């Protein structure tokens, strides 16, 4: 399994010209039995509802059969400000909780 993480802290610019490259890489993973998983990590604070580039990534994932999880504005994280070191980084406890939630989603997916 390969995890690719997008986060608001690092601007993700969707370049339509690179879309065929991304798609080709995603399909190559599938052909080689490599499960690719793309993830947007949790963010604490006001948000637009999803991480930057999430809609484009989600669409490409649906097209190529790649798993995509958007935890960016997941309600459970918004209820626990104590899980964050700052708006963009989970602290130790938050990371443990995120790991539990993420692993549960992966197990449910399989």
Question: Could you walk me through the main structural features you see in this protein, from its secondary elements to its overall organization?
Answer:
It is a single chain. The protein has helices spanning about 20-30, 55-65, 75-80, 90-110; strands at about 1-5, 35-40, 65-70, 85, 90. It is α/β, with parallel strands linked by helices and about 110 residues long. Helix 2 links the parallel strand 2 (about 35-40) and strand 3 (about 65-70). Residues about 5-10 have low confidence and may be disordered.
The side-by-side strand order for the widest beta sheet comes to 1-2-3
What's the end-to-end separation, in Å?
A: 12 Å
Taken from the alpha-carbon principal axes, the silhouette is: elongated
Over all CA atoms, what is the radius of gyration? 15 Å
Summarize the amount of helix as a percent range. Answer: 40-55%
Binned strand content? 15-25%
Helix tally?
4
How many distinct beta strands?
5
């Amino acid at each position: 399994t390969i995890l690719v993480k997008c986060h608001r802290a690092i601007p993700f610019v969707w370049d339509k010209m690179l879309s065929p490259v991304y798609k080709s890489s995603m399909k190559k993973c599938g052909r080689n039995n490599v499960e690719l998983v793309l993830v947007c990590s949790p963010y604490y604070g006001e948000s637009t509802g999803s991480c930057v580039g999430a809609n484009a990534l989600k669409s490409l994932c649906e097209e190529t059969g790649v798993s995509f999880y958007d935890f960016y504005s997941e309600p459970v994280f918004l209820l626990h400000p104590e899980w964050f070191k700052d708006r963009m980084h989970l602290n130790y406890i938050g990371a443990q909780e995120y790991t539990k939630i993420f692993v549960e989603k992966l197990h449910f997916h399989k």
